[in-house]
Amino acid sequence: MASLKDSLLDGISGKLDKYIIYRVGNETFIRKRPKKVSNPKSEKQQMQRAKLPGAQTMYKALDGSLLKEICNLAARYNEKRSGYHWFLGKNMNLFGANNYIDYSRLEFSDGSQQLPFGTTMKQTQPNAAELHWTDNSSSITAQSTDRLMVAVIFDNEPYTPVLLEDINAPRKDGYARVTLPEGEWQTAHLYCFFGRDDLKNFSPGIHFQVTKS
User: Fold this and answer.
1) Does 23 lie in the same domain as 100?
2) What superkingdom heads the lineage (predicted)?
C-alpha cells in the first residue's frame, strides 16, 4: 500500500489495471488487486475447505459427554475462549478432504497433571490391549490416585470419540487392561490420559492404535 499525496492520481478512486485506488479521509492510497484463484477446485483448495467442517463435526459429537467438559477445562488451562476454540485450534489442521483425519495427532485433553513416564501399549487380543507405565506420583501434578482415562475412535465411526467407562486403573498401579467393545470396526485409535479424582484437572494425552487383523 502506498500514499498518493502530491500525485496526479491524488483524489481519484477506483480500479486501474492491477491496482485499486481508494480514499481514507483526505488521503488517497493505492494497492495491488488480490490475485484470483486459478483453480478453486484444486486438491489443495478442497483440503483447506474441508478442515473446518471436519473438526466441527467431531466436536459436535462430544455433546453430552465428559470429553466435552475435559475440552472446556483444557481451554481454561490454555486461556482459550471455550472448549470449542481450544479443540479447533489444536485439531482443525488434522482434517482434510475425503474424510481424511490424522488420528495420531488428535488431542482431547490438556492440563497441569503429568503423564506417567514410559507409557507403552501391547495388544494382547484383537479387541484388547495392556498399558504399562512407570508411576511418577511424587508431586501435586502427579498423584497416585490419578485415574487412567481412554477415549477411542473406531474406524467405522470416524468422527465419534467415545470415553471408555469400565477402566479402573490409578497411576500408582502402573498397569491397565483395555478391552474394546465388539463390533464391525477394524482399527481403533486410543487416546490415553490421566485425570484427578475430582475430574477438575487432566494431563495431555498419548495415542495408540489397535488393529484386529
Assistant:
1) no
2) Bacteria
